[in-house]
Amino acid sequence: MPSIGERCHELRIRDAEKNWRIIYRIDDDAILIVEVFNKSTRTTPKNVIDICRKRLSKYDTD
After folding, report:
1. What range defines the domain where residue 36 resides?
2. 2 occurs within a structural domain
3. Kind and range of the H or E element at 9?
4. Residue 14 within any structural domain of the chain
5. What whole-number distance in Å separates Cα of residue 4 and Cα of residue 44?
């Protein structure tokens, strides 16, 4: 998902009642699960994108 960052992807999982999304990033030494949420619209909510960017920025800084 380029809107969040390089090497970020979205995994789609359909449940009996909901559509789940897992945002993750693949690094050389780890796979980071950044966010899991129920998606009910075609677009990823802006607040989810912002949260993911902040989390990844903090991870990279630490």
Report:
1. 8-61
2. no
3. strand 8-14
4. yes
5. 10
Residue 3, in any domain of the structure: no
In angstroms, the CA 54 to CA 20 distance is 21
Number of domains composing the chain = 1
pLDDT tens, per residue, the chain with 62 residues: 788 989 999 999 998 989 999 999 999 999 999 999 998 888 888 999 999 999 999 999 98
Neighbouring CB atoms inside 10 A of 54's CB total 11
Inside any domain, residue 1 = no
Q: Which residues contact 19 (CB under 8 A, 6 or more apart)?
A: 12, 13, 38, 39, 40
CA-based radius of gyration for the chain: 12
pTM for the structure as a whole = 0.87
